[in-house]
Design brief:
heterodimer, A: two-stranded antiparallel sheet, globular, B: mainly alpha, 19 helices
Chain lengths: ~625, ~500
């Protein structure tokens, strides 16, 4: 039964992908949605078993790579951590499948789209249920591949293709680190299975490696390399550039892959490897700093973006930053909790924005929207719920998870911890501002679209609204319901062995003013945003024109793309051209085969001049030679 | 003595070729000739499959040995296979019939002669992988050049003569030194029998020079940087079937040679020169990947990517780790399948459009979807996506390399990023995007034989990506014994 959770989506994908044209669009849609939904129900059942009966199992499906001492199986590991991920992945996936039936109704390639979605689900499940690093890597690259397919789904769009390749290649940069991490693990432990690796951790804690003359602690290096992989997949700063571009894909894809599931794989990796990370305080601090920087950076950029999906994409980036700094301060369970709640409200926001885009017939610029809240009442309400949950409005799901992160950062009690908590609070305020900006600009104010009349905008069909509704239930209640299970003091019972705490988390409470600070800022931000973006619309423009350099800096996303273009893309093309034309062409061929053959040719042309055919020339040469010989003899 | 199964594998294609030689050549599509060639190669493939089934995996001894006196006291005709060579034999017999099937579109004139060349080449290639006597190996190794030289020179494109001679010069130059080395080995030890040589070993003081002589031949054939420039030219000019044989099998002779002879006969020298191999391999991986990024000609791009992939192979062999060498062998098999498939996919559109330039194409997916799917599978296998055979090879190699030398593994891993970049960019420019070129609208999708051939290649690529056990089990014992033999040799000297 457990195996069918993984394989139902694969079967769905194969049928829809290869036989889609025979069974028809509608049947492939129904089939894939149904199979993934069954998988979701089974996952919920498994999670229930895990919660109630502490059910754990490691199913070996088949051998995979078996070379020398390397022994890797295809396997399915069910423990609390993977059970939570199973539910997140399959349930969001099932809802997105259903939603896509409506959203993609005008697209000519429906079976292909559904096949990709299901294939993605399969790869993601392989990732989360692996019991070793190499199958994890399989899933890791597999989801990257599906993401590549889905971002570039509209293959005629040049920008979509470019974004797809960018996503894959930037992820490969992260994977480069990840793969090296796996090699290092195999080098250190002689195995890549989690349980065996985690057991041996204490034996290598004091081991040092020398690399390029530097002495580094082996365990720090392992953690760093794995984290580089996580940074790529979870779009952390420096390797984040692919995520906003990935919004070229259809909106359901953004909801599933670039909000709820794939991008959280990095967080999952760090949590899964908590038995390793616990021994490397250095890298944990590094993770905190990276996470915090990303959270802040992405929130600032989201403030000024005008593309509805890009705002949410940066918001995702920012929230992933929160998850990482939760993991960085050692609160892995809180990171997982935020991952869990975030999946609901972020998928809700994405699908809601998809509903808006649908209503405006593929318009994505929020400056060209406005005033439609009466026309799209359900979408409006659902988006508000999503926004409230995201910003951490009291008693909605984001409130429990995000505030917990900030609290634990504070309770960490060291410099990084305080700093992270401070940045976390500022970012929470920014988050709230940009989220409400999106809502107000999209639904309130005057109607600004010149292409279609306001009467033509329409509410989405029930097949799209139903998944939104279900997600909104999650966004409202997930935090409240699962709080005790995930981060309550009974946490160690639920997470059991799957998360390791070297030192138990602090059970104290921060001071009351600290607890109230974030919710107050969040509440305060709503009227501020309303004033800025509905009442006094010129004010934001004025602020922007006064601080032109800062504004440009933000609009251009801190100039990362431009920097990379010069640093990596252009330079590697130039180097490639140089190596080809100059090294291969001029030097190797020039001095090699071409050089030698032309040299020989020259010599033989010279030599052939001797054979002129004139007797007197030969006679003359003979005479000269003979006299030279004679002279030589005489002189000697 | 049992039935001489290896000799029949070697001889059968020659018999087929002789048979063809006596049939009358016809203009155009010579079906008789094709059927004869196809029949021969398929029978050969079946024999080799039988060989694999009958092969005993639990020992590293040579099996199916045949030993006949050729020149009394000097050369014996000795053939036999172990876990390392059997896979290459099967690769050869598997690729050749596919070549024969695919030949109808790319070769317009003198089809019969072309098929004769292919059959003879198959014989020689099988001979290379079975030979257990240095002289016999050398003969097969060099003779294999001749049909290839003819294939490029006669059936090639516009610059075929330049390419053919470049190919011949490069490869011959290296081989001369190897011949000298083989003769020296005979003078030093009194035998050219590989099995005997494994037992008695070669004096350390000679090893370095001999190793370099063998290396000069193998490096050219691999090809390693900086003696690789013949390969892009040869590929560009060769007809599709020629490119396939060249990439899939010819290049593997050198990798096989490194394992069988360089490691086996000269353990001390191999250890000495490992840094050289590492440096050249890493340069090959990084430099040629960057070059591949900039190519405008599809075949050249794939040719350069072959150099990069073979860089991984040489790197893996000299790690002298179980994972490294097994990875190299699997990488060679995988590259044999993938590069063959990629050249065939280029061949498919070349036959229709008569252009290899990337800029001619774009938007193919909307007119020829079947083609696009298969092309995607091969592109992904080439960039080493998990779930394809390319991943297993690359990953094991890097894992082995990491055990031996951090820095080398780190730099080589960068090649994986570049590999993704050039392959996906190629695919995007050819298959995705808007269909701009009007001529492309009339292009037709794969016909039945093309579809069959490409599916035959896709199946093992995927199968061994998910389940490489059959391959690894076959080579496991031979490789581990090779390594332990190498270590005892090192320890004793």
């Amino acid at each position: 039964m457990e195996l069918s959770i993984i394989f139902l989506p694969l079967i769905a994908s194969i049928i829809s992908g290869f036989f889609g044209r025979y069974i028809g669009d509608r049947n492939s849609e129904i089939l894939t949605s149904a199979l993934v939904s069954i998988s979701a129900l089974l996952s919920i059942h498994v999670l229930y078993q895990v919660i109630v009966n502490q059910y754990e199992e490691n199913i070996v499906i088949a051998t995979w790579i078996n070379s020398g001492s390397l022994d890797v199986n295809w396997s399915m590991l069910i423990d609390p951590l993977s059970a939570v991920m199973l539910v997140v992945v399959t349930s969001v996936s099932a809802l997105v499948h259903i939603y896509s039936i409506g959203y993609m109704s005008h697209d000519p390639h429906k079976p292909r789209f559904m096949a990709y979605l299901s294939l993605f689900t399969f790869a993601m499940l392989m990732l989360v249920t692996s019991d070793n690093f190499i199958q994890l890597f399989f899933g890791w690259e597999g989801v990257g591949l599906c993401s590549y397919f889905l971002i570039g789904f509209w293959f005629k769009k040049e920008s979509a293709n470019a974004a797809a390749i960018k996503a894959f290649v930037v992820n490969r940069v992260g994977d480069f680190g990840f793969a090296l991490g796996i090699f290092l693990i195999f080098y250190l432990f002689g195995t890549v299975n989690y349980s065996e690796v985690f057991q041996q951790i204490p034996t290598v804690v004091d081991k040092n490696l020398s690399f390029l003359g530097f002495e580094v602690k082996a365990i720090d290096l392992v953690c760093l390399l794995l984290f580089i992989g996580a940074m790529g997949k979870s779009a952390q700063i420096l390797l984040h550039t692919w995520l906003p571009d990935a919004m070229e894909g259809p909106t359901p894809v953004s909801a599933l892959i670039h909000a709820a599931t794939m991008v959280t794989a990095g967080v999952f990796l760090v949590v899964r490897c908590s038995p390793i990370y616990e021994y490397s305080p250095l890298i944990l601090n590094f993770i905190t700093i990276v996470g915090m920087t990303t959270a802040f950076f992405a929130a600032t950029v989201a403030l000024v973006q005008t593309d509805i999906k890009k705002i949410i994409a940066y918001s995702t980036c920012s929230q992933l930053g929160y998850m990482f700094f939760a993991a960085g301060v050692g609160a892995y369970n809180v990171a997982m909790f935020h991952l869990f709640t975030h999946a609901f409200f972020k998928a809700l926001l994405f699908l809601g924005s998809g509903s808006v885009i649908h209503a405006f017939k593929d318009e994505q610029n929020i400056n060209n929207m406005g005033g439609v809240w009466k026309k799209l009442p359900y979408t409006y309400v659902l988006m508000i719920i999503g926004t409230l949950a995201l910003t951490g409005f009291p008693f909605l799901s984001g409130f429990y998870s995000k505030d917990a992160i900030i609290e634990f950062a504070y309770l960490k009690g060291n410099t990084t911890g305080y700093y992270a908590a401070g940045v976390g609070i500022i970012t929470a305020f920014l988050t709230s501002i940009y989220s409400w900006r999106l809502i107000f600009k999209t639904f309130h104010g005057e109607y600004n679209n010149k292409n279609i009349k306001i009467e033509e905008t329409h509410e989405s069909p029930i097949v799209m609204l139903l998944p939104l509704f279900i997600l909104s239930i999650g966004a409202v209640f997930a935090g409240f319901l699962f709080k005790d299970l995930f981060i309550g003091h009974s946490d160690n019972i639920f997470w059991a062995e799957s998360i390791k705490f070297l030192n138990p988390l602090s059970t104290e409470h921060p001071p009351l003013w600290f607890l109230l600070l974030t919710p107050c800022l969040v509440l305060l931000s709503i009227p501020i945003a309303y004033y800025l973006f509905v009442r006094n619309k010129n004010l934001p423009n004025d602020i922007a024109s006064i601080n032109k350099p800062l504004y440009n800096f933000l609009v251009n996303k801190w100039y990362f793309d431009e920097l990379y273009e010069v640093l990596f893309i252009k330079s590697s093309k130039k180097i490639g051209l140089f190596l080809w034309k100059f090294c291969d062409g001029t030097i190797i061929d020039g001095f090699g085969p071409d050089g030698i053959s032309s040299f020989i040719k020259k010599c033989s042309i010279k030599a052939s001049k001797f054979q002129s055919g004139f007797i007197y020339q030969y006679a003359f040469i003979m005479l000269v030679g003979f006299s030279a010989f004679l002279t030589f003899l005489i002189v000697k | 003595m049992n039935f001489p199964i290896l000799s029949s594998l070697i001889l059968l294609p020659i018999i087929g070729a002789l048979f063809l030689f006596f049939t009358k050549d016809k203009e155009g599509n010579n079906l008789t000739a094709k059927y004869v060639a196809l029949f021969t190669t398929i029978v050969n493939f079946l024999i080799s499959i039988y060989l694999w089934i009958a092969f005993e995996q639990s020992t590293s001894n040579f099996q199916f040995i045949e030993d006949r006196i050729w020149i009394e006291g000097f050369i014996n005709y000795k053939v036999g296979i172990d876990g390392i060579s059997i896979l290459f034999v099967i690769l050869t017999t598997f690729i050749t019939p596919l070549c024969v099937i695919s030949v109808n579109n790319s070769v317009k004139n003198r089809l019969r002669d072309f098929l004769i060349a292919i059959l003879i080449m198959e014989s020689f290639m099988i001979g290379v992988f079975c030979a257990l006597d240095l002289v016999v190996f050398y003969l097969f190794f060099e003779a294999g050049l001749i049909p290839m030289f003819l294939i490029i020179g006669i059936w090639g494109g516009t610059r075929r003569v330049y390419s053919a001679f470049k190919f011949f010069l490069y490869t011959l130059l290296g081989s001369v030194l190897m011949l000298v080395a083989i003769i020296s080995i005979y003078w030093i030890t009194g035998t050219t029998d590989v099995v005997r040589l494994y037992e008695i070993g070669i004096d350390v003081k000679y090893q370095n020079l001999l190793w370099l002589a063998f290396f000069s031949s193998f490096a050219v054939k691999t090809p390693m940087w900086p003696v690789h420039t013949w390969l892009p030219d040869a590929h560009v000019e060769a007809p599709t079937a020629g490119s396939v044989l060249l990439a899939a099998i010819l290049l593997k002779m050198a990798g096989y040679g490194f394992i069988r002879f360089s490691l086996g006969l000269f353990p001390v020298a191999s250890e000495t020169f490992t840094p050289l191999i590492y440096v050249l391999s890493v340069i090959a991986i990084i430099f040629t990947s960057l070059i591949a990024l900039m190519q405008e000609d599809m075949k050249k791009l794939i040719a350069y990517s072959s150099v990069a992939h073979m860089g991984f192979v040489t790197l893996g062999i000299f790690t002298l780790q179980q994972q490294g060498i097994e990875g190299s062998i699997i990488q060679m098999i995988s590259h044999g399948l993938v590069s063959a498939a990629l050249f065939l996919t280029v061949g498919v559109v070349y036959d229709r459009m008569h252009s290899r330039l990337i800029s001619t194409y774009g938007g193919l997916v909307s007119v020829i979807p079947k083609y696009s799917i298969l092309f995607m599978i091969f592109a992904l296998a080439s960039l080493g996506l998990p779930g394809t055979s390319g991943f297993i090879g690359e990953f094991l190699i890097l894992m082995g390399a990491f055990k031996d030398n951090f820095l080398v593994a780190v730099i080589a891993s960068l090649g994986v990023i570049l590999g993704a970049a050039y392959m996906l960019w190629l695919y995007k420019r050819v298959v995705f995007g808007k269909l701009i070129n009007e001529d492309l609208k009339k292009i037709v999708d794969l016909n039945r034989s093309e579809y069959f051939v490409l599916s035959c290649l896709a199946a093992p690529i995927l199968f061994y990506g998910f389940y490489p056990d059959p391959l690894i089990n076959t080579i496991e014992v031979s490789v581990s014994d090779l390594i332990s033999m190498h270590e005892t040799n090192l320890a004793s000297k």
